[in-house]
Amino acid sequence: MTRVIVYSTALIAFVAATAMTFSAIFIPDWITYDVSSNTGGHFTRKIGLHRSCSYKDGSATCEHFPTKTDCMGDERYFCSMWRSVGFLMSFAAVLELVTIVAYLVIINGGKQKRETGWRILSFLLFLVGIVQCAGMAIVAYVFDNDERFFAGWQLDKSWILCTVSWSIAMLSAAFISLSAFVFPSEGGYELIPSERYNG
Known about the structure:
single chain; alpha+beta
């Protein structure tokens, strides 16, 4: 029963992390520029993985990002880096869905799966964390080194959601691995399949 509680608790946290990942992918809010003019006007631009949105005095316009201009000439480097982040985050989202399935199989798979399944689960969680961390790091690198992000730009909500998400994945991997050695084996025994129905 102890292992069921461990896996169930970790699953709840990981479902929340997965929701954060999908939010980070679809909400255009990785890097933001916000400025107010002396005349009372207000302008905000938010950049996401696949689109950017500009807000001016209550009106909003969105477009695909990176644009063709962002991918020409000297800008190709930025374009490649940004698209790489999009790929990494999408890959992480797929891995997270696979990991949730693995959680459910292990939790409902009986004593043996709960006692041995931590290895594959920890591996998947660690892989999710590494992929997302790489995406987060690329965005931070571009933000610090690309000339388009001058003073006034800042890393925003989607970047934070990504950071929290991979942190939860890594902590879950560590927690599940530790629990495999700390908690005692589940008590009782299970009948083999042939005896469950013939008994």
